[in-house]
Design brief:
Helix content: 25-40%
Protein name: C-X-C motif chemokine
GO molecular function: chemoattractant activity; chemokine activity
CATH topology of one domain: OB fold (Dihydrolipoamide Acetyltransferase, E2P)
Radius of gyration: 18 Å
Strand content: 15-25%
Strand order of the largest sheet: 1-2-3
Keywords: Chemotaxis, Cytokine, Disulfide bond, Secreted, Signal
Pfam families: IL8
Function: Ligand for cxcr3.2. Chemotactic for macrophages.
Shape: globular
CATH architecture of one domain: Beta Barrel
Largest sheet: 3 strands, antiparallel
């Protein structure tokens, strides 16, 4: 193998070896659409707010659900999501 092919092969193997990289880390939007307008609060285990970036031009809000560990995108424009974020901000500032 020549040096270019070897370098390409090593790069490919290293990229393939990286596991657990989210879509956001790869430089794409995680959410393909706006997302859900409502999720029961008691079902939320984790909430992530991902700001706009050069790789993804929209604000993304992702919740992980209890029990199933399913991730869902939430619509940042919905009244429920805005109230949820405001409530969490007030709690964290106390």
């Amino acid at each position: 193998m020549n040096s270019t092919a070897t370098l390409f092969f090593i790069s490919f193997v290293l990229c393939a070896a990286v596991e657990g990289t989210s879509l956001y880390e790869k430089g794409r939007c995680f959410c393909l659409r706006d997302g859900d307008d409502f999720v029961r609060r008691r079902n939320i285990e984790k909430l992530e707010v991902i700001p706009k970036s050069p790789m993804c031009q929209r604000l993304e809000i992702i919740v992980t659900l209890k029990g199933t560990a399913e991730q869902r995108c939430l619509n940042p424009q919905s009244k429920f999501v805005q109230n949820l974020i405001n409530t969490l901000r007030k709690r964290s500032s106390k």
